[in-house]
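Step 1: inspect the first sequence and its tokens.
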Amino acid sequence: MEELAEQGFVCEERRGNRTYYKLRFRRAGKQIVRYVGGADRAAIVEAELAMLQTDTKVMRELNAKVKFANKLIREAKQAIEPVLKANGFVFHGLAIRLPRRRKKGVTTNSNS
């Protein structure tokens, strides 16, 4: 059942004038095939499979949208950064800030 919650599908195979339905999924990298029966049983299995895989599908869609949003943020930051630098601002994560001003005569020594 764990494998089916992540992936798997019902496929239709025709042999001559007969149609067979099979459940296909992977377990430890190997494809497992189980005969389902006729169209009525296949419809029931597909409905159960859809309910079982709902959480996985929602998480995949959410992850894809988060990835796309992060890409848009990255592109926006790259487009805005030259304008910010020209005006003395910098990005601190997603926030736009003025960098701290160093006091005159104070130097930082990274060797000590």
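Step 2: inspect the second sequence and its tokens, then contrast the two.
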Amino acid sequence: MSESLHVTGNTREEQYLSLLPQIEALAKDKAAKWAVLGNIMAALKYGMNFFWVGLYLVKDEHLILGPFQGPVACTQIPFGKGVCGAAWKNKKTFIVQDVNDFEGHIACSSATKSEIVLPIFDKNGEVIMTLDIDSELLTNFNETDEKYLMQVAGIIEQVVLGE
């Protein structure tokens, strides 16, 4: 699949509504799941103009950097540490409007100002990875992002679990 990404819309919601069918199409690619996930990360980053988008995979007591798009990133995050570790530990989405206000924030890039992290689950309800999205703008994420990124997380779950 070598189609170019085309996202339209004036509002963030309209942009997500334009992007979601493209992510769903990418998820149907029969390539290796890591290649598919890499393309989904690219679609999110460039479709929504985010600073950094990536997956952290649960391995033992750490999150290990998986497919991502953006500047160099932290390669591992301990359980419960930083926003990603907190989303893993608490099994819930975290929206951080100012990363400097999040106690224990791990600064992989000093350019990151706000962040949203969503846990991704296996069939037993255990976190298998986190979807981490960073912005160089303060207060860049809200409930609209959470709503549509939860749909993206569901697509990622299907890719990873082979459904």
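Step 3: confirm your contrast with the notes below.
The domain at 12-161 is CATH 3.30.450.40 (Beta-Lactamase). Residues 45 and 104 are 25 Å apart (CA to CA).
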